[in-house]
Amino acid sequence: QPDRLHQLLQKARENNPTFTVLQDARGNAELQRQRALQGRYDVTAFLEGTTFPVGSQTYDDRFQGWTVGGGFNVRLNDRRVLEATRQKAEAEIRQFEAQIEAEELLVRRRVTTETQSVLENDRNRDQILELLRQKAEEFRLRQGAYFANSVNIDQLVDTRSGLASSETVLASNLYNSANRESRLWLATGSAYELVGLQVRSEPPARGR
């Protein structure tokens, strides 16, 4: 169902660490871009102070005194450096966006494929179980006929082989479903939840 598939894809976005890493990297590149656009000047404020707890009282008047100073530093950044930084950040943003899109397409394909396979195996299992029931009943009747000397041993063995073949098909169906479900867990990030790890996207920390 489309709604259920959408939920699985959303779960993958939240729990798949690849999405989180790429989104955080894109956010950091965007911060670099914004700094390059707004960073024409670097302005730094400072405050400093000094105390004089010991000294010669007769030498000067700084004994047990203090001094305080402060000010601003303004630096004009090189526009060529800022432009190069901006271009580099924008190239990284495009790269990360392309990787995010490619990862989303890959996860969407995996989730869709594995989900459809699990549902198809489930539908086939009903038919396999019905066939298995018929084969078991056929073997039970053939076994009674054999002890009544109505059929020979080869006919009984053939019936038992048919039953064994149906059991093998059922085992293969269950194994395939379990394998598909494991892949689906990995694609949606449920495997990380299973071991107590959860990945949540958070805005990248702003630099100072």
Write up what this structure looks like.
This protein is mostly helical. The chain is 70% helix and 12% strand. The chain has five helices and two strands. The protein has a two-stranded antiparallel sheet. Helix 1 (2-15) crosses helix 3 (79-147) and helix 2 runs antiparallel to helix 3 (79-147). The chain is rod-shaped and about 115 Å long. It starts with a helix and ends in a 14-residue tail after the last helix. Residues 201-208 have low confidence and may be disordered.
Short recap of the structure:
With 208 residues, the protein is mostly helical. The protein has helices spanning 2-15, 17-38, 79-147, 153-188, 190-194; strands spanning 41-52, 65-76.
